[in-house]
Amino acid sequence: MITEDASPEPGCRVVFVADDGGVDEARNRGIVTACREGLVGAVSVLANGDAVEDLRDRLFELPQDRRPGVGLHLNLTEGRALLVPIAGLTDGGRTFVGGKEAIWHRAFAGGIDPVAVRREASAQIARLRSLGLEPTHADGHQHVHLLPGVRDGLAMALDRVPGVRYVRAARPIVPDGENPVSWPRLAIAQLADDWVAADSSGRAPEAAFGSLVAEADRLVAGRRRAADAMVGLDLLRGWFAADAVDRIRLAQTRGARLIEFMCHPGDCTAGSAPFSSCADRERERDALCGAALTDGLAALGVTAGRFPGVGAD
After folding, report:
1. pLDDT tens sequence across 166-209
2. Does the 12-304 domain belong in CATH 3.20.20.370?
3. Residue 62: is it exposed, middle or buried by C-beta count within 10 angstroms (0-12/13-18/19+)?
């Protein structure tokens, strides 16, 4: 059962944030199941996703006490921009080209226009609001919100939306047994082998992800804050309850009081995008809805819920 509260708890809280809401109906089904029957307390939504209206309808069918907080999952890599073509990122028809590798390379080369990002981010926020989805947190599809140029443009857009209280800008927790220097490089490799190779600043590859987080101060400004720790970056291939409990325990022992757990529940459906249709998505959905995770958190004295101060609509 999701715990709702208007202020941070004396103990430790974890917010399971389901990414990629609206990308397709298979993911939407799994996400909403994990809200209705499990521990998901927030959903990050692609405002320009093909199935964003389907997600809206499914979320509105949930009981009030099961509705998650909704956030912007800033998308600059897939589908089409909502506003106008963006130099270097889209073609003349507003279709994003080159995927995540293109924007990473361009960002590290200083080729992202923050003003263009602000305009597109504002358009994506406006799209969510037009659907009755008021964003209370923000992050980026494929972590684009941390990239140079993008983070500044997104921050400018968020400055105009006081209701967005949380951003994904917490340092990732290193699993037990992993080298705390090499682990970020391993995690990034699951996303794209050349992410850090695109960094022309001369920083060590293994430190690139941590460096991006450390430089995200512009995102965490004013009323906006980040969780104390973020887990899930190394679990993109799916996870079981024991994996989640181990990482939450580690974050807790390092003093985290508010933990963001990035997750990707879904249903396997033939014809969906490969990431959506793989069995890993159902494994996460089932773990989020199962007794093993609930019991594991209880044993740690950790509650699962929405971000503090974020209630049901």
Report:
1. 999 877 775 655 544 333 434 444 443 444 454 445 444 444 56
2. yes
3. middle
